[in-house]
Amino acid sequence: MKYLGILALLFFASTLQAQSFTGHIAFGKTSINYRIKLTEIENQTRAFFSSLEMNAFEIPCQNTTIDKDSLKFYVISDFYTYEYRYLRKSKNLKGQLNVYSNETAQLLNTFETDLTREDIRESELIEKQELTFTSNGFELSGTLWKPKNPNNTGLLFVTSSQSNDRSGTNAEAYYFADLGYTVFHYDKRGTGKSEGDWQSATLQELCYDDMNALEFFSQISSISLADIGIKGSSQGGIKVPFILSKMPELGFGIAVSCPGGTLLESDLNYWKNMNLDQIGITNMDRALSVQKAGYDYLAGNISYPSMLEIKNENLNEDWVKYVWFPERDVQKDYKLNFSGLPYFEKITQPILVIQGLSDQVIPADSFRTIENVLKQSKSQEFKIRTFENTTHSMTYLDKEVPYFQLITPGYLEEITQWLKTVETR
């Protein structure tokens, strides 16, 4: 949950034992559900925030203190501060959410929101087990989510881009485990608690980490690879067809926000969308070719003198200030040259491809490009699903309430229904 920052909590003295409260925020046709969990750790009351709609699972709150009759906590995002205020009402809490602008400190909106005491039985809790495995000489750390009512199907989240660790998929891991799936995800090499360096690794090396994770997952869960599938988003999505083609015994794949070309082309497309207003449509084609030279040097496709020559030819252009040129000693990123398209054609397993139609990162026609390649594959069960008004991270844009970054409606339900068809094939 990217926007969660510092949370402060005040609560009445009788909450020293573990308690959980559920609440929701309603506006228009939208409703956000969330949970506040209070527990005692090392003689201090700690609070944890969860919301599937906000892609959050047990985010630890900070600065927890106790008050007799009130609960107060706040969440800070890049642009907004969310202040929750509650008063005790029997076993429940009644209050409101105030949303402030971080830039001006202005109160933007207020929502009524109550909390209801929730009873949790230990027998119903999903079991989480912290584990380590070795891949290519590195010790990697992961979490096994064991459902209370397993359906004997496994799901592994392959790692994604940059320095993202497994916490980014905690909410979805809980969601699918609650449905009965045994789930495994882990920290990519060089992130979280895992050894190694993701920056210097090739994408193929990172894929082999995922493949080693799959073998480990199958062993510890006693679920055959044929009953295990993989899910990846963005850079993780582009890895899905590679892994499926290398491990034909795997059951299925889910590729979300997957480029229909190389990662370099996606980075270039994102740069174009972020700078179109400043540069203008008239100059964009030329500016794009110049920025491509910068990315080509980063990817090891051209020499530094070649990039400088292109840069110097355009130094007098006003738009050149928006172009990024790497330094000579920049660490090369050969992952930029990777494309999943050749591997989509090789797969035999069922695969679900999902793309948001307001995605500013990958090319808009990616899903069509992938679909045309899949038609040439031996996979007889593939599905392409697009969502209107949905971003690269599968969040939707709500102009009426722009204060919350929410998972697009129907996204997880689409995956759930598709998985049911895969299980019964």
Protein topology:
Blueprint: E1 9-11, E2 19-27, E3 30-41, E4 44-51, E5 56-60, E6 64-66, E7 70-76, E8 80-89, E9 92-101, E10 107-118, E11 127-135, E12 138-146, E13 154-157, H1 170-178, E14 182-186, H2 203-221, E15 228-233, H3 235-246, E16 252-256, H4 263-279, H5 281-298, H6 304-312, H7 341-344, E17 351-356, H8 366-374, E18 382-387, E19 395-396, E20 406-407, H9 411-423
Parallel strand pairs: 1-6, 13-14, 13-15, 15-16, 16-17, 17-18
Antiparallel strand pairs: 2-3, 2-10, 3-4, 4-5, 7-8, 8-9, 9-10, 11-12, 12-14, 19-20
Helix pairs in contact: 4-5, 5-6
Describe what this molecule looks like in 3D.
- This protein is of the alpha/beta class and 425 residues long.
- It has 3 domains: 9-120, Beta Barrel (Lipocalin), CATH 2.40.128; 123-262 and 336-423, Alpha/Beta hydrolase fold, catalytic domain (Rossmann fold), CATH 3.40.50; 263-335, no CATH class.
- It is 26% helix and 31% strand.
- It contains 9 helices and 20 strands.
- The strands form 4 sheets. Strands 5-4-3-2-10-9-8-7 form an 8-stranded antiparallel sheet. Strands 11-12-14-13-15-16-17-18 form an 8-stranded mixed sheet, sandwiched between helices. Strands 1-6 form a two-stranded parallel sheet.
- A hairpin with a 4-residue loop joins strand 4 and strand 5 (56-60).
- Helix 5 (281-298) packs antiparallel against helix 6.
- It is globular and about 70 Å long.
- The two termini are 35 Å apart.
- Mean pLDDT is 90; it is low at 1-16.
